[in-house]
Write a structure and sequence with these properties.
heterodimer, A: 331 residues, alpha/beta, Rossmann fold, seven-stranded mixed beta sheet, 21% strand, globular, B: 315 residues, five-stranded parallel beta sheet, binds thiamine diphosphate, oxidoreductase (chain A), oxidoreductase activity (chain A), magnesium ion binding (chain A), Transketolase_C (chain A), Transketolase-like_Pyr-bd (chain A)
């Protein structure tokens, strides 16, 4: 596929990456519930079935078989890209991800690998129910052997997926439903992509570092803009790859700013925010204030939008907590 | 005889009117998010719930509004739940996909395909130990028949002769994909044989037929005869969710479906039996009037209070 630059939404960028991968890697397979003929419930796999035939197909509602077969196919040299429609449904087949996929390379002493890519999406949206709202990245990050990333821009939606499929490890790509239909942006398709890992500087500032990922990235940036207007400089670092994690960039930033806030949509206890704080603490970075974690309170997700809005961090809440972090005062 | 059929008609109209009102409120805005309607499938909950006792436990799916209504849950707190009101059956926490009203023997919808089946086994197991003689009914779609959890539950129930009735609503689609493309032909009901239990394919658009078979299965279960699988053949007249473009439909398919949909069919039967049209139409009017009143009352209720959002997490 020749390198081109096109205006694409986040969802279209995923689609473009899938087309590219089908063309450049003949061993690629794309499958999952409703991904073939219907083109995906979010339209992300549209056109693939028509163009690539049997390499793209619909499956029964059998997540264990979807993921387990991807492990087996990957062990035999295919590059399966399977879709789990909502991250919540991956729990039905956790065994195949945690006990099987993540295990293959290590226990076989590197003789076998399972380079499958799992595409899914997560997060809260208006009226989504408790079983369609969870942010589960921390669950998967606890599993050694499994790589995890969460793109937040159309360009990264393309690049991270390409890097994931080219990676020789099992990779979980967690997309975001609310971003699928966002504004179109210039996306370079078909060119070289950065390898797995790294981070993105989304806003500059010298008073505090905000580390974030996924849909929260843009709320954190909005908060940083608000605070810039008040003379508070916030450096927003997005870490689209959570494993491998760019500890160096985070530690370097906090060394400069002396303050750390981690913002994620997932609930706080046991979230990856705790890991980020631990890494910064472990690096011995001197801090001017105790680090904070901003996330959803530890509760199930209610269906009523007015209840859910009270839980999921927004730019206003992020700005308020970071303001207090910088200016001091009771939290 | 026509008395009972008029009662069935009313029960089906209550569901149809509720669902049509839900669709209107979803399209107009006060209801948000994903909503799955059961329009066209009303005969199954109506027939099945008629065969249940108050102590029996019912586990439905996200397409469960009709099951909640048929089990006797009033329309107003259900509307309120969809509208995120404090007076909702679950105070706005559950929403469309998680109606729960245990006081009516409605032990909840579920939004994870197939997840209700093992839970129903547990409810049946509990009945064996608490002396209630409870039967558990689990409802799921044709697509759910391909979930490991459903297979495990069927074997579990069969191995222990648990009083479980597995009700499969075969509307021929799993979201946007025809079930015929996802299984190697045949009748889903035949899978029951593999677990050593009876399985029947029945007309799911005929409340009387559903009642007959569910009553039978419940009786067998209650007397220690173990589980039964009922594959109820039906069609949803609407999309998988509100907003589904239904691109997967074949030409002429909807016309065929409408000819055998349960309400129109029952109406024709009643007319053929000599029941006056005015009497039949009065049933629809009554259901629609009740439904409008319930929706209006729910719309007038206060929204759920965000200050309570952390409540009900722990005992
Ligand atoms: C474990 C799981 N996988 C996938 C989904 C997404 N999903 C929701 S409804 C549905 C189709 C279910 O079809 P069927 O069981 O036939 O029931 P119907 O919707 O037709 O009533 C799917 C795939 C889910 N909710 N849970």
């Amino acid at each position: 596929m020749p390198e081109t630059t096109r205006k694409l939404s986040y969802g279209e960028a995923v689609n473009a990456a899938l087309h590219r991968l089908m063309e450049e890697l003949p061993e690629t397979l794309v499958y999952g519930e409703d991904v073939g003929v219907p083109g995906g419930v979010f339209g992300v796999t549209r056109g693939l079935r028509k163009q690539y035939g049997e390499r793209v197909f619909d499956t029964p509602i059998s997540e264990s078989a979807i993921l387990g077969s991807a492990v087996g196919a990957a062990m035999m040299g295919r590059r399966p890209i399977v879709e789990i429609m909502w991250a919540d449904f991956s729990l039905v087949a956790l065994d195949q991800i945690v006990n099987q996929a993540a295990n293959v390379r290590y226990v076989s002493g590197g003789r076998l690998t399972a380079p499958l890519t799992i595409r899914t999406q997560q997060g809260n949206g208006p009226g989504a129910c408790a079983q369609h709202s969870q942010c589960l990245e921390a669950l998967f990050l606890h599993v050694p052997g499994l790589r995890v990333c969460m793109p937040s821009t159309p360009q990264d939606a393309h690049d991270l997926l390409v890097a994931a499929v080219h990676s020789d490890d099992p990779v979980l790509v967690v997309e975001n439903r609310t971003l699928y239909f966002g504004a179109k942006q210039e996306v370079t398709v078909g060119g070289p992509v950065p390898p797995a890992g790294g981070s993105r500087l989304r806003h500059e500032g010298s008073d505090a570092t905000v580390v974030t990922w996924g849909a929260m990235t843009w709320r954190a940036v909005e908060a940083a803009r608000t605070l810039a207007g008040e003379g508070i400089g916030v450096e927003v670092i997005e870490t689209p790859w959570l494993n491998p994690f760019d500890t160096g960039a985070v530690v370097g930033s906090v060394r400069r700013t002396g303050r750390l806030a981690v913002v994620h949509e997932a609930n706080v206890t046991g979230g990856f925010g705790a890991e980020v704080v631990a890494r910064v603490a472990g690096a011995g970075v001197p801090l001017q204030a105790p680090p904070i974690r901003i996330g959803t309170p530890d509760v199930r997700m209610p269906a009523a939008p007015i209840l859910a809005q009270a839980l999921v961090p927004d730019a206003h809440r992020i700005a308020g907590e970071v303001r207090t972090l910088v200016r001091g005062g009771a939290r | 005889m026509s008395e009972r059929r008029l009662a069935d008609l009313l029960a089906m109209w209550r569901i149809r009117a509720f669902e049509e009102k839900v669709r209107q409120l979803r399209l107009e805005g006060p209801i948000v998010g994903s909503v799955h309607l059961c329009i066209g499938q009303e005969a199954i909950p109506v027939g099945a719930c008629d065969a249940l006792e108050p102590e029996d436990a019912l586990f439905a799916t996200y397409r469960g509004h009709g099951w909640a209504l048929a089990r006797g849950v009033p329309a107003e707190p259900l509307f309120a739940e969809l509208l995120g009101r404090a007076t909702g059956v679950n105070g706005g926490r559950g929403g469309s996909a998680y109606f729960t009203a245990a006081e009516y023997g409605f032990h909840g919808e579920n939004s994870i395909v197939g997840a209700g089946a093992p839970i129903a086994c547990g409810a049946a197991l509990a009945g064996r130990h608490d002396g209630s003689n409870r039967v558990a009914v689990t409802v799921f779609g044709d697509g759910a028949m391909n979930q490991g959890a459903v297979h495990e539950a069927m074997n579990f129930a069969a191995a222990f002769d648990l009083p479980v009735v597995f009700v499969c609503e075969n509307n021929r689609y799993s979201e946007l994909t025809p079930i015929a493309d996802m299984v190697r032909g045949g009748r889903l009901a035949d899978r029951a044989a593999a677990y050593g239990m009876p399985g029947y394919r029945i007309d799911g658009n005929d409340a009387e037929s559903v009642r007959f078979h569910v009553r039978d299965a419940v009786e067998v279960a209650r007397e220690g005869g173990g589980p039964t699988l009922l594959e109820c053949m039906t069609e949803r007249i609407v999309g998988h969710y509100i907003g589904d473009a239904e691109a997967y439909r074949q030409p002429g398919e909807m016309e065929r479906i409408l000819r055998r949909e349960p309400i129109a069919r029952l109406r024709e039967g009643l007319l053929a039996d000599g029941v006056p049209a005015a009497e039949i139409d009065a049933v629809e009017t009554r259901a629609r009037t009740e439904t409008e009143a319930a929706a209006a009352a729910a719309l007038a209720a206060p929204l759920a209070d965000p200050a309570t959002v952390m409540e009900h997490l722990y005992a």
